[in-house]
Amino acid sequence: MHPVRHISSYRRHACASLGLALLAVALAGCSSGDTNTHAGSSLLSGTRGGSIAAGQLASAARLARRFAYAYARSIYKRRPPRLPGATAALRRDLSAAASRVPPARRGLHPRALTVTLRPRGSALAGVVEIGDGRSPPFSVGFLVRKQGSRWRGVTISPPS
Description:
This protein is an alpha+beta fold. It has helices spanning about 10-30, 55-75, 90-100; strands at about 110-120, 125-130, 140-145, 150-155.
């Protein structure tokens, strides 16, 4: 039998981000602005001012995943830590939401079960499914958008 190798979560996420970037580059070579009927919602069309360029997709996805995993770990904390790429407005919203966490959940250890990313115009929409081992898993949506030269977490939706 061959020994089973353990792959760290960092390496899995890095490989997933690289795979997503390679897929984006491959898809960019297959698209044509003349025949794209979904240019307004296309991730790589480049024909509308709001689409994400293939070269920027990897950095947007990397930040979105870091944000989602950090958010999931801190969702029950009384004072959430600074999340990667979060805007000041989003930090204020998260601090206000932290005051509404039931006391019984404060001692639990939530984690991200899955993170799904989809293009939405010039932004990247994400959904993180969170589980804590006791409550039923729930999903929280968020949006990552480029502001200036940086990708930033700009909004988050209530758990569903």
